[in-house]
Structures are given as structure tokens and as C-alpha cells.
Amino acid sequence: SNRVLLVQCAGEENWVDSRTIYIGHKEPPPGTEAFIQQRFPDNRIVSSKYTFWNFIPKNLFEQFRRVANFYFLIIFLVQLIIDTPTSPITSGLPLFFVITVTAIKQGYEDWLRHKADNAVNRCPVHVVQHGKIVRKQSRKLRVGDVVLVKEDESFPCDLVLLSTSRDDGTCYVTTASLDGESSHKTYYAVQDTKAYNTEKEVDAIHATIECEQPQPDLYKFVGRINVYMGNESVARPLGSENLLLRGATLKNTSYIYAVAIYSGMETKMALNYQSKSQKRSAVEKSMNAYLLVYLCILISKAIINTALKYVWQADPNRDEPWYNHRTETERQRHVVIRTSLFSHYFLAFMVLFNYIIPVSMYVTVEMQKFLGSYFIMWDDEMMDEELGERAVVNTSDLNEELGQVEYVFTDKTGTLTENNMEFIECCVDGHVYVPQVICNGQVTDTTKEGWEREELFFRALCLCHTVQVKEEETVDGIKHGIHQGKSTSFYISSSPDEVALVEGMKRLGFTYLRLKDGQMEILNREDEIEKFELLEVLTFDSVRRRMSVIVKANTGELYLFCKGADSSIFPRVVSGKVDQIRARVEQNAVEGLRTLCVAYRHLSPEQYEEVCHLLSDAKLALQDRDRRLAEAYDLIEKDLILLGATAVEDRLQEKAADTIESLHKAGMKVWVLTGDKMETAAATCYASKLFRRSTQILELTTKRTEEQSLHDVLFDLSRTVLRHMCLSSFSGDCTDYGLIIDGATLSAVMRPNQDDLNSGNYKEIFLEICRNCSAVLCCRMAPLQKAQIVKLIKASKEHPITLAVGDGANDVSMILEAHVGIMGKEGRQAVRNSDYAVPKFKHLKKMLLVHGHYYYIRISELVQYFFYKNVCFIFPQFLYQFFCGFSQQPLYDTAYLTLYNISFTSLPILLYSLIEQHINMDILKKDPTLYRDISKNSLLRWPIFIYWTILGVYDAIVMFFGAYFLFDNTTFTSNGQMFGNWTFGTLVFTVLVFTVTFKLALDTHYWTWINHFVIWGSLIFFVVFSLLWGGIIWPFLNYQRMYYVFMQMLSSGPAWLSIILLITASLLPDVLKKVIWRSLWPTTTEHTKC
């Protein structure tokens, strides 16, 4: 059959902007149209963020947008400009270190992106020029070039198909890297050019293409081609079935010729790259909030000190010693100068106290996240032996979010299931056939009529499909069907279900052989080849949910065979054993099997003529083509006789049910978002324990909204849920609710009717219903709707942390909105766009319940500890001002100020934040409820933050006043020498370093030799450094105030005693608080340890 394919140019008159492409860059014949050569971008793909020239300014700009970095830059500049009590190096060095480390990390990541871009842009492509094939780099391809693509090659840009190696002008393509579907799709060459099969012939094509400007919809394309033959021109419409997209791969076709129409960043694939928005974790938001609090504390300290300095200086005896009286004129001038120095004093105090803001916290957090992410990648339990794949971390910034997940959105096919269809059974007139049991299709119904019906059913399934047969030994490099040294054929199709059905028929004795010259050949049970002429294919679409073929048997009889979803076949059936088959279909659907019904109809030659007339009219229509085709199909597919039904299984992934159960126990709400039909998806949800038998199902589907308005349905459901909430709060028994919603109803909820006055709060009611359901199933979802759902939940008033799991490119927009991708069979697009990728759904359990839990515990301790140790560090400096006349005199030496955060106290907390395990890994896996202990950012709440701050202030007061009162004894050393202010500062600093390090040691639950080495090693380093710093006269220093100070202090017995007493006094309240809290109000985790 010679089928003419025309596509409706939808909205042609409304085109705002279109482009004209001259095939092979040839001018159109004179008098046809003006030749205006448009400029199009080249074929380069750019995914990198920086170039060699803009890296430094752009990166610095981005880094100084961080509040802390900008603040430290200002402090550093203030120290350079005015005479401050501390050296500019004390804040300049840590800032330089932080900026450099971050820049190196970001530069390396961008270099990797550049490398990947170059590999793609330098790929060789074959272009037809002057009748010859020329090789060029992909980036040099231009719009209008005619390209030759061979089997298993990817398309270098978006192309319109001109001709193929097949006589019928078709080619087969897999779009796994675009939309996640690994099945083979059929595309069609332009009718008038499909006969041109050599370079010379293709080069002779004289044509122009008019089409819309690039837009991201993968399934929509509107255009027309004008082919010039002599003085005549023929216009043909172009549609999405003529457009080959960049990234797709040619299959089962030797070669094709096509013309480039969109290139580089204008291809549909590039337009679909949703730019990755910078995701910020809840911990980072808490850090910034705490930082603002500490900034306020810092400013208030500086203001108080500046004010008190003026009060102090108001007393002439203090400001003017008895041995140096000023004259009256000098006094007047001094008052003026002092008033003008207010900002100078204020800034000097700001600089003195600025160490309360921990700059090194940011670099420690960056290192903790970067190094910590390797624990996921190194985890052998999260490796898939079969694929040899490990977990991948694309973004280390969100590790701790894995411990805070409240909603999990998962795709179904390929994520929860294996995407591997297997034919289970078929039911013909109420008789069930199972391939393994009834070998070679042993007949169970002995009547002649029953036998004929059974054979007709098997023939229907062998003919009603779009499967292609591949005779070669390999596909995608994997050997298939090699049996006893000879290659056998195997099937490929755009739908895995179709392949499963045709293979099922093969096991029942009817083998589909091939489609050749319009004849479909099948091998029956008697090993005879039967031929049927394929006259028409009424293709499958998601609205009709069925497909049909019209075939002509050798006897001359005409048949229409139709297969589709039960809901779309049963209403069109006029006879057959409907009740028995319906019962079987419902039973199979409940068991989680994908069901299809098969029916047929005899056509008389007159009826066939009428069908042909209807179809050709609809296909040639330029306006409303889809609607007219749908009407034609509707008229043809009626008065059917039901033959039977089939059941195909898409098996659940290993341990998928166990994982979902664990996530539920951990307090997470699991939503399944799928494009599948409701019955199948619901069955999978029961199998995977998303819904239990006791779960009460609420339906928000098109079927229900047809019976009553959306407004009424929503209010009904919300009443049901809220009434139950009130009852359960009295009675204590809790019913589980599960909600099922479909794509069409979701659209109505998201974009309500403008006329409906009550529609404004639909979203709110919908969210309220969802909040009270333990599980939600969204079926018949478009890719963008998946992202809308995630966005809706994220934007709700609680702002929950969401995680999306999917394996195909159709899940990319949802994954970009939330977090995790799974390595599936369907391309790598999801993996590339995700923050984390795991080989199988079951690995999600360990990733969240163990790794996520640990990451959150570690980083929350890191953040709180950093603020605590800086309060301990700088509060004594504040108290010291009351004893030195508010003269901005530093308590600690410059070396101590600089190195406190960089080296004395940084390594122990970094190591803690990498390897701490407050509870055993196996316990976390066995008891998912422990995850609830850390939900909703519970360890970084304000009460805990205030406790750490008060503890820091208490420790600082103990250290400062403890040392101060001990210093009251003037004969502090054995030889009667008195100690100076630097010895006092060093004593406070020594107690400080030991106290904060011991505090961390008390918080550590998981001790290894590395902990011991780092904790005690950093204390030894402090002592050794102090001995060296004070034991040598350093020639590069213009002061020697620390010379011999540390040794002199350690030579005093009371100093040793005071150090030990002060450390004990500082740590005691925290130890007591822990003991009391644990015995009176233990957490679930602490219960488990007991």
C-alpha cells in the first residue's frame, strides 16, 4: 500500500516568525520567491559556565555574592585603610584561602564540562557537497547542509528526512537520550524526495523549507517543503514524523539523507536543557540566619564598646594623666578630634571582634560536602553487579538534604519496575492460554467454531502491531538470539508490550516473520507461511487508546483487527463473550498485569471502499487533520466482535516494595507519577506496597469529574478526609488514605476555569487532601506535569524537602525541580541531570536512611560547633576591654588570632563531620523510624542554636574570670615574678583550645585511630607551635612580645592547676545536661542504643 503522509500545519496563519531554509544552499528558481539568506547559529553545543577570559571576574563576582565572603572583604579593606589593633593578614589570609579553594573546585568542574562539549563538537559528520561526501566536524555544520547518517550513528542536529535506504522512505530511530524511550520509532521521508538515494541525486534536489522558529516541544513541528521540478513547485506539509532530532540514533536502516534545519543551541535537545537552578540546602539557609544573628551581636558589641570608650574618656583623670596636663585650647581641639574619630573607633572594635563570624566555616563545609560525597560513590552495597554501575554524585552541595526528605516522587516504568515486558497469558472466549503450561498451543476447545476463533485471535495478534523484524546477530552491541551457531530473528518496536505479545504468540505456535512489499507473513502451527496484504494501519494514540489494521487474506477476505485498552474496546463490541473476558481482564488488572483486548470485524469490499475514502480525505486535510482523522477512526472502529484479551507483566524491581515500606516508616510520603493507565498503575502500587489492602482509595479522575463537577468532587474528598481526621483524633484508630488523580484532572486543578468563581482555592483544597493521604498515584501524566506537581508541593506553606526519582528523559524536568535520578535502561539523560544517581530503586533506602542521616547529623554538629568555638574565642576579648580602658588592646597574639580557626581547631571538626557515626549503620537500616528524629531540620532549630551560644558564653566567662582571679595572686611564679598581659592572654587561649577540642571529643561516638591521631595531634601541634613561636627571636617580626611567654607560663605550678580546673569547670555543665536529658527525655535513637 502506498500511504501518503501529510501533516496538518497547525496555526499556519498565526505564525509570527518563521524561517526559510534553502536545501544545499541553492537559490530558488527566478520568479518563485525572493532569495533572502538568513543567518543561523553554528552547530556548537555549550554547557560550560565560564570561558578562559571571564573565569576570574565572573567567579569572584559569584563568590562575593555570599554574605560571609563579602563581609570579610570589607573587614580586610578596613584593616588596610585604618590603623587597627590587628594585622590585615589575620582576616586576609583565611579569606584568600577560602576563595582560592572554591575557585579551584568550580574551575575544575567547568573544565570537565568544556571537555565534554569539545568531544561532541568535534565529532565527524558526513555532508553532501557538489555531489560528493565530505567529512567535517560537527560544529562546522550549517543550516541547509544535506547530511548523510549511517546506521547506529546519532543525528548531529535537527534534520528533515529527505530519503532513506528503504524503498518505502521510512527509517527507524531510538530516542532514548531525549525522552527516555528505548523503543524504535518510525519516521517518514518527504514524499517527493524519497526516491533520491545517491549523493548525486540528493545534490540535485532543488527545494526550500519554511518552518517555525525553534521551540522546545519535542513532539511538535510545523512546516512545509516546496520542491521545484522544472517550472513547477509542489508544496507538501511537514510534521513531527519528518523531523529527526539531535541526540536520537538511527536503527535498522542502512543510511539516510536529511537536511539540517535547527543547529547548535537552537536544536530541540538544547532548548530542553532546563538550566540548573542553584539549589540551596536547608542547612545553608540556617547557617545564613545564624550568621545574621552573630553579625547583630558583633555590631552591638562594637557599639557598646565605642560608647563605653567615650564614657571612660569623659573622666579627665583617665584621659589626662596627672603628669601631662593639657591647656584649655588643647582640650577644645581634643574634643573635636574625638568626636570625629567615632567611626574610626567603631570600625576598630568591629575588626577586633570580627572573629566571631567564622570565615573558615564555609571552606570546612565545602570540603566536608566534597569529600563526604565520595562515601556514596565508594559504597559497595550501592553497586549494581549486573550493570557494573556505582552510585554517582553530580552535586555535593545537597548531601545533608538526603536526611531531610519529606516527599518522594517516583516514576513507575523503569524506576519501580524493570521495564522488561513478559507475556503471561491470553484468554480466548473465556479459555485461558499460558505459554509454559499449554505447550505449542494445545487446543482446549474441541469444537470447530472454538478452534477457528482461537486461530483468528492468534492471527489478530500476529498482524495488529507495528513490530519490525531484525535478522542480524547484534543490536546495540549485544548478541541476541544466537542459537546453535546460526542467527535467528528478533523483534523491535516502539512499544515493549507489542514485542511481548508477538513473542507470546510465537511460543503459542504462530510466528510473525516479516513485512515485505506490503505483505505480512506469518508461520502457523503447521509450519505453513500465510500471507496477508496490509492495507491500512490506524495508528495508536493516547486519546483513543487502541490501534487497528486492515488486512486482506489470500482468500480475498477483508478483516479489521483492533486491539486496545478494555475501556476503549468494550463499548465498541456488539458480540462475543464479553462478561467472561471482562471478568478475566479485571482479575489480571488487580494482579498488576497490563491488559489489552482484541476484537475484529469483517469488511465487505463496499465497506472497505468507504473506509479508504474516509481515511484519504482526513489524511489530505491541511486544517484540523488530527480531529478529522480521529472522527474517521471512530466511524471505522465500530460493530466489533470480541475475540479475547492478553496479559503482560512488567515486573517490579527487586526489593522495590521493601524500599517503599521503609520510606513510609521513615515518615516520607511517596507519590508515584506515571504516564500509564490508572488500572495498571494502581495494581503496581498495590504490588509495591504503596497502597495496602486496608488503604481507602480516593479517586480524583476524569471519569468522576464527568459525573459531577470538579468543585463538588474536591469538596466531597476534602470532607471525607477532614471528617476522618476529627474521628481518628477522638478514637485513636487511623485509616490510611490513598489518592488517585489523572493528568487531565490535575490540569483542571492547576489551571481552573476562569468562569468558576470558587476556583481560586482549588490548589489549596487539593494540597489539603494530599497532605492527609499516605500515598498518592498520579497517572496519565505529561513530563511537564510531573515537574508542576513537585513545584506545587515545594511551594506549599510547610516548604517540604522533595526528592524525585526517575530513569528517563521524560523525568528530567521533575528531577531538576527536586533531587535524585536513577540509572535506567532508557538513556542517560536522567542521570546527567540529577544531583545523585543510583543504579536501582532499592539503593534509595540506604542512601536516605543511612547516608542522608549521617550527613545531616555531621553537618549540623559542624555548624553549631563552629559558632560555639568562635563565641568561646572572642567573648573573652570583649570582657578584656572592660579591664584595659576600651583601648582595642587584643587579648591574644596575632599568630593565635590567625591560626585558631585555620589550624588549631579545624581538622578535628572536619574529620568528625566526615566519619562520625552516632549509631550503627545496620540499626539505621533495620529501624527506619529513626529518620524521623532528624526530620524538619530538627538539629538546627533556634533553641539548640541558643543553647550552643549560651554554652559558648558560659565557657568564655569561666576561662576569662577564672584566669583573672588566679592572676590576682601576684606571686604567681615560684621566683616571685609577675605575669604580664600576654601571659594572661596565652593562659586563656590555652584553656580555650583544650576546652573546645575536648568538647568535640565528648560528642564523638565513633572512635577510630584517625580520630585519636587528629584530636590529640592538633593539641600537640598547638603546644609545639607555642613553644617554637615563643622560644625563638623571629627576625621578621617588629615586636618580640611573645618571647619566652609560653615557657614561663608552663614553668608555674598554679598555671597548670588553673588550666586543668578551668577546662573541667567549662565542660561540666554540658556533660550534666547530656546525662539529665538522656535519662528524662531520650530520643528514639538514644532509646535504640540502650
Automatic annotation (TrEMBL):
It is found in: Cell membrane; Early endosome; Endoplasmic reticulum membrane; Membrane. It holds the Pfam family E1-E2_ATPase. It catalyses: a 1,2-diacyl-sn-glycero-3-phospho-L-serine(out) + ATP + H2O = a 1,2-diacyl-sn-glycero-3-phospho-L-serine(in) + ADP + phosphate + H(+); a 1,2-diacyl-sn-glycero-3-phosphoethanolamine(out) + ATP + H2O = a 1,2-diacyl-sn-glycero-3-phosphoethanolamine(in) + ADP + phosphate + H(+); ATP + H2O + phospholipidSide 1 = ADP + phosphate + phospholipidSide 2. One of its GO terms (molecular function) is ATP hydrolysis activity. It is a multi-pass membrane protein. InterPro entries: ATPase_P-typ_cyto_dom_N, ATPase_P-typ_P_site, ATPase_P-typ_TM_dom_sf, ATPase_P-typ_transduc_dom_A_sf, ATPase_P-type_domA, HAD-like_sf, HAD_sf, P-type_ATPase_IV. Residues 831-1083 form the P-type ATPase C-terminal domain. Keywords: ATP-binding, Cell membrane, Endoplasmic reticulum, Endosome, Lipid transport, Magnesium, Membrane, Metal-binding, Nucleotide-binding, Phosphoprotein, Translocase, Transmembrane, Transmembrane helix, Transport. GO terms for biological process: phospholipid translocation; positive regulation of myotube differentiation. Residues 37-91 form the P-type ATPase N-terminal domain. ATP binds at D411, K412, T413, E498, F540, K563, R594, T674, G675, D676, R780, K786, N810, D811. Its cofactor is Mg(2+). Residues 125-186 form the P-type ATPase A domain. The keyword Transcription does not apply. Its EC number is 7.6.2.1. Belongs to the cation transport ATPase (P-type) (TC 3.A.3) family. Type IV subfamily. PANTHER family: PHOSPHOLIPID-TRANSPORTING ATPASE IH (PTHR24092:SF33), PROBABLE PHOSPHOLIPID-TRANSPORTING ATPASE (PTHR24092). This is Phospholipid-transporting ATPase. It comes from Gouania willdenowi (Blunt-snouted clingfish).
